[in-house]
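Reply to dn_fold:

You asked what the input looked like. This is it:
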Amino acid sequence: MQGSANLNLMIKAARKAAKSLVKDFREVENLQVSSKGPGDFVSKADREAERLIKEELMGGRPTYGWLGEETGGEEGQDPTRRWIVDPLDGTTNFLHGMPHWAISIALEHKGEIVSAVVYDPAKDEMFWAEKGAGAWLNDSRRIRVSGRRQMIEAVFATGVPFAAKKTLPATLQDLARLMPTCAGVRRWGAASLDLAYVAAGRYEGYWERELQPWDIAAGLLLVKEAGGMVGPVREGEDILGKGAVIAANEALFEPFCKTLRG
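and this is what came back:
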């Protein structure tokens, strides 16, 4: 695997956390969990994974800033660089014994994502990318977005809001507009993997609202480096700041956006 020192550090951190998560996943029924809110649970496994990742990344780059799902943000001595980490994306899948969850690590430099890792330990799929160097799966397979050019042939992914999230009406409206025009919509419950699957050509596109930076930071770079396009749900908004994203291959990006935006 050819990559920068930072990328290699990210991969090492992801694999280290994965060992701990896989062990807990095998004993998922015995996990002690505490509730953060309806439908959104955090486990000891989640917190331990973030601790391991932070220990590895900050140990290797102690001057960088940090933004993690569990531990929040910390300003670094180097204000231009920041790690953005989701130690366990797909927590609900994890806690229900469903093998579709991931570790997401991104490196931001001067407000731009420059390195990305999304690791799916259950399937041993390591998606990674660096700015200008393409997107890759595992050691040597370069990935690219789908070549499909017709909406009716396309499969899209999204997240359906749980509990009483205010974006449910908008999502239902999206589905009503989109589903008659495409081959199907999937909801698998891990935003980082949805974006990685767009990058790998498994989905033609993905959209979702009310996300956090750690949910999508790494995946955005994967899609762009795989030849895809990303944008906000509403034109002009900041994707990471607002947490609403549309991603697709180049051929379908505009019709996909047009369908969702109405």
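Helices lie at 5-25, 44-60, 91-95, 168-178, 191-199, 213-225, 239-242, 250-261.
Hope that clears it up.
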